[in-house]
Amino acid sequence: MGEARTGTGAGAGAGAETNGTGGPAGEPTNGTGGRAGEPTTGTGTGSATGGRTAQLAHTGLRHGWTTGACATAATTAAYTALLTGDFPDPVRITLPKGQTPAFALAAEEMTEDHAVAMAAVVKDAGDDPDVTHGALIRAIVRRLPAGSGVVFKAGPGVGTVTRPGLPLDVGEPAVNPVPRQMMRDHVAEVAARYGGSGDVEIELSVDHGEEIARSTWNPRLGILGGLSILGTTGIVVPYSCSAWIDSIRRGVDVARAAGRTHVAGCTGSTSEKVVVAEHGLPEDALLDMGDFAGAVLKYVRRHPVPRLTVCGGFAKLSKLAAGHLDLHSARSQVDKGFLAELARQGGADEALAGEVATANTGLAALQLCAARGVPLGDLVAATARDEALAVLRGAPVAVDVICIDRAGNVVGRAAPRGPREER
């Protein structure tokens, strides 16, 4: 949940953020045979020949939609039906970056008194090998008394949080903060358009979700009963090792050809925003690194750029700090024992180190240390920077690292260091 690739279907601990803002060639459908819209690409600030947008387009793979986008579409259709008597089909929504895809409905029902409505959308993950591809995501929307606001409920196949360390309280439905906000925003928009109060309960369910969740990290994270409703952009960027690594190389080539002296490898859209805010880098200096830290470092080693910023979620960069070059949850995990040792180096006593070693998630470990004044974020950033320099093998590249939390807050930094500087 959180800054996690939806391709894992794994909820928060699966990695860092959902990647991508733009679209490669192709027009994703939502899995029902209907056209799912044509998302606009990129951030609107860069060149057509370089940067994140061009890098993603270079993969040639088809985008899909996150569970959060599908749940928002189903919710919007169901609430519209409650207020108007008719289900919009297809139903169009607005994603966080302004794209406006439309989704065909796979099922719809409403009570005679228009108090409860259900709409369902089939998830299309595009060319991503996503365990939730083809899943039927339902939203049951019920009217509530005025002043109740929007209440979320986990239906069959949607998990419930049972352990601390995730961006939701224990006992809450496993519906991530960004999808929750998307649904609140669309409920408010529909209410304003058709004269509703906006006070509703949204019960989300996924057919066979509990079975699908066994193939994810959710049970280990204490998310029980089903899947998480995920996504920070609404778009699933398709995952292909060879295509992604090739796109990283093309991104470095374009940045060098443009004369850039500072590039940034970002794990996803949230970290990209942080780097732009911190350094004001143009789009053609941004590399969508995703999980492939090693691909960035090895190519920059052979094709140096004077400065490289690595920015990503704390959990992902703790993997780099531990020596992992592939940060995908299927191939590397957060090592809490390693984090405990770093915490000791930062002044943690044995009691705190023990708590870190047994924490539910990397985020939980970070929070434990922050509460006791131990700068675990800075320690991870510095160690990740030194690991990156080791991979660069003396190439003339200065590296700095920024660690962020799920909301995009900076939780750790390591200042630029070059290959000849004393450690």
Outline the structure in words.
The protein is of the alpha/beta class and 423 residues long. 34% of the residues lie in helices and 18% in strands. It has a five-stranded mixed β-sheet with strand order 4-5-6-10-7. Strands 15-14-16-17-18 form a five-stranded mixed β-sheet, sandwiched between helices. A hairpin with a 5-residue loop joins β4 (107-110) and β5. It is globular, with a radius of gyration of 22 Å.
Question: How would you describe this structure in keywords?
Answer:
alpha/beta; five-stranded mixed β-sheet; 13 helices; disordered N terminus
Summarize this, please?
The protein is of the alpha/beta class and 423 residues long. The chain has helices at residues 51-58, 67-84, 177-194, 209-213, 218-221, 241-257, 269-279, 293-302, 314-321, 336-345, 350-357, 362-371, 376-392, and strands at 64-65, 91-92, 102-103, 107-110, 116-122, 136-143, 150-154, 157-158, 160-161, 200-206, 223-224, 226-227, 235-236, 262-266, 286-288, 307-313, 398-404, 410-417. The protein is built from 13 helices and 18 strands.
